[in-house]
Amino acid sequence: PEAEQAKDEL
Amino acid sequence: MNIFRLAGDMTHLLSILVLLLKIYATKSCSGVSRKTQELYAIVFLARYLDLFTDFISVYNTFMKIVFIASSLAIVWCIRVHPMVKRSYDKDLDTFRHYLLVAASFLLALFLHEKFTFLEIFWAFSIYLEAVAILPQLVLLQRSGNVDNLTGQYVFFLGAYRGLYILNWIYRYLTEPRFTRWIACVSGVVQTALYADFFYYYFISWKNNSKLKLPA
To answer: How confident is the model at residue B145 (pLDDT cuts 50, 70, 90)?
Structure first.
């Protein structure tokens, strides 16, 4: 599930 | 977006502006490690491979382009610009930074969120960023006294990831399923590497003396 979180940080 | 992450991104942007100012104003890169700049260019290129595929926000896309463009511009300046190139001291900048690239990539092959091309390169960029400052810190220790702009550049670069740690704590407390272990652990290691620099930077600020790292 972790990878589902969009990489919204720089 | 929270205040800690915004402050972190702005501090990171500030560090890049300070470095650009130093190189542009003095037409010199003395005290600046070309290897650290090359590592950061690799970090941004590897991390933002999804620049054209995943749209998060205008801010996110804009900042990614700024980070990629500025890091490549700085490497170009130090490698190609005749005035700046002459001031680069390759005898001081001797860290074997390709070992950092190899080790980070190897670690990313074993430790990642998902075994996909993008996730492995993202993890690689996170691990590489954690150690990217090492050539610069070694160079500062060797080059004795550090000019103000270079010192401020390293300070802001170290501070930005420290602010990101506050951001991760905040998001962990406020978002139910927020977990970013790879970025968190790497970020703590990255910030810890600046510990002694922060100490000597604080001393020089308190005593209003020249920043000097012990050899």
So the answer is: confident
Out of B54, B113, B167, name the one closest to residue A2 (CB).
B113
Cβ-defined contact of B9 to A10 (cutoff 8 Å): yes
Residue-level pLDDT at A5: 75
Q: Pick the more confident residue, B64 or B215.
A: B64
Three-state SS letters, chain B: CCHHHHHHHHHHHHHHHHHHHHHHHHCCCCCCCHHHHHHHHHHHHHHCHHHCCCCCCHHHHHHHHHHHHHHHHHHHHHHCCHHHHHCCCCCCCCCCHHHHHHHHHHHHHHCCCCCCHHHHHHHHHHHHHHHCCHHHHHHHHHCCECCHHHHHHHHHHHHHHHHHHHHHHHHHHHCCCCCCHHHHHHHHHHHHCCHHHHHHHHHHHHCCCCCECCC
- B206 close contact with A: CB closer than 8 A: no
ipTM of this complex: 0.90
Domain range summary for chain B, segments of one domain joined by +: 3-206
| Cross-chain CB nearest to B60 (options A2, A3, A8) | A8
